[in-house]
Task: inverse folding
């Protein structure tokens, strides 16, 4: 039985949605349809005022798509929801409140009658020495823009270098993770550097070295052997080195050491190894599975009937594969959001709840140029047909006509014109590390001594945290 809406004569029940990724955005959009205007107050707490269409971040990093074109404005897309900018850093489940940390560092306490937790995830680093300090992620617009700036800056340094060893280190780029994001990034950015090398008098395309590393036995294992082999052929044709069954053991500012014994001199480590749930989940005190919040098939938290959770941060049972969890993909997050909206509305007396069930419709991987691999409805496609299917899927999945038109024009211009080589300077270098860019230090979860260790690893993070007004956690007391 769902608990009754906690109402008073003074106010309507409040539905608080945490996060504006695919899960939170589509849930709120559907809530506006399922709930009458006077049925509930709808509040969306988000660190950004847009939905980020993250599958196209490699296109942004490569300069093919302009960054704003994959950002769907919340105020334009949502009709009734009140949008509050900031991070929800704590939740009192019993007290039905949440703490919002605003951009300026101030905090506010938000009450709720139904809580929808979709805080997403952060880049998984596996506690490998140096990765949090020197690795570059690809989960935000700022990280994508910074990666492009960084690569162009390395080409500038290579062109100016007199020492051959330093020049080669500047021209060497290591990408970890042969899944969708990592494979797309290595393939697309290789094209960027090869084309850009022609504009530098002391560089040549063959000097560009891209290395793709993964512990898996093949690239894109989710797509099956045939499409994985097709993607491997494209990577090899472009000169990308693929090291499978290998992982990173240590990263420094000047090199990356691999588990096969090779040490690669490089200043660029791009970390695309998937996500781990938001640090917010650890602070809730609720049961987790593989770090993800345990939920039922109807997306409710068993020990907190007024709380719903799904997306990257929740362990959603996959009813199409008994005993398994749904994948941490945009496809699932979007559809879970729609189901959750129906169930939240049902808990308030509008409609009936249903269990989440969805069969994967296939996957799509853009390798840049005229190359792609895709499996729409299980049909394997490569080359130009794969590219048509891949980009067609992205256009359909973008929830805004204006964004679709802009992205389409970006793709056409990329085919018709030479790329623009210009650094934008969105982030300072110390703000681009995984720890700083993804704000993992603002939650109460990590012990203080771990925070201190990270600060010693990256002195710039200590200064950055102080500059942004983020308080340091209290020292951990002995047991």
Result:
């Amino acid at each position: 039985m769902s608990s009754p809406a906690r109402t008073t004569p003074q106010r309507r029940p409040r539905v608080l949605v945490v996060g504006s990724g695919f899960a939170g955005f589509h849930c709120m959009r559907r809530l506006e349809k399922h709930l009458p205007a006077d049925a509930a107050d709808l509040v969306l707490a988000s660190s950004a005022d847009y939905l980020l269409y993250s599958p196209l971040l490699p296109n942004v990093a490569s300069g093919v798509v302009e960054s704003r074109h994959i950002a769907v404005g919340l105020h334009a897309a949502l009709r009734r929801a009140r949008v509050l900018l900031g991070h929800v850093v704590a939740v009192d489940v019993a007290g039905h409140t949440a703490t919002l940390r605003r951009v300026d560092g101030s905090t506010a306490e938000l009450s709720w009658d139904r809580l929808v937790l979709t805080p997403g995830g952060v880049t998984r680093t596996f506690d490998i020495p140096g990765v949090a300090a020197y690795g570059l992620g690809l989960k935000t617009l700022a990280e994508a823009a910074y990666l492009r700036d960084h690569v162009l800056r390395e080409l500038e340094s290579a062109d100016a270098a007199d020492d051959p060893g330093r020049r080669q280190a500047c021209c060497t780029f290591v990408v970890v993770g042969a899944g969708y994001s990592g494979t797309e990034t290595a393939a697309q950015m290789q094209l960027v550097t090869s084309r850009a090398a022609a504009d530098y008098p002391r560089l040549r395309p063959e000097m560009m070295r891209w290395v793709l590393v993964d512990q898996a036995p093949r690239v894109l294992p989710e797509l099956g052997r045939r499409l994985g082999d097709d993607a491997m052929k494209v990577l090899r044709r472009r000169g990308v080195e693929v090291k499978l069954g290998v992982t990173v053991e240590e990263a420094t500012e000047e090199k990356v050491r691999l588990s096969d014994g090779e040490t690669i001199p490089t200043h660029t480590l791009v970390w695309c190894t998937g996500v781990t749930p938001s640090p917010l989940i650890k602070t809730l005190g609720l049961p987790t599975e593989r770090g993800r919040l345990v939920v039922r098939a109807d997306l409710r938290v068993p020990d907190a009937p007024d709380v719903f959770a799904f997306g990257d941060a929740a362990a959603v049972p996959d009813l199409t594969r008994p005993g398994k969890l749904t994948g941490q993909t945009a496809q699932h997050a979007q559809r879970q959001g729609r189901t959750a909206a129906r169930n939240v509305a049902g808990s308030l007396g509008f409609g009936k709840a249903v269990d989440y069930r969805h069969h994967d419709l296939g996957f799509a991987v853009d390798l840049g140029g005229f190359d792609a691999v895709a499996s729409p409805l299980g049909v394997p496609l490569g080359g130009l047909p794969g590219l048509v299917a891949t980009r067609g899927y992205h256009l359909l999945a973008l929830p805004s006509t204006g964004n679709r038109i802009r992205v389409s024009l970006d793709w056409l211009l990329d085919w018709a014109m030479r790329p623009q080589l210009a650094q934008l300077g969105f982030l300072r270098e110390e703000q681009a590390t995984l720890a700083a860019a993804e704000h993992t230090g603002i939650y109460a979860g990590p012990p203080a001594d771990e925070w201190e260790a990270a600060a010693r690893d990256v002195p710039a993070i200590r200064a950055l945290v102080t500059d942004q007004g983020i308080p340091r956690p209290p020292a951990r007391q002995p047991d």
Observations:
- The chain is about 35% helix and 20% strand.
- The radius of gyration is 23 Å.
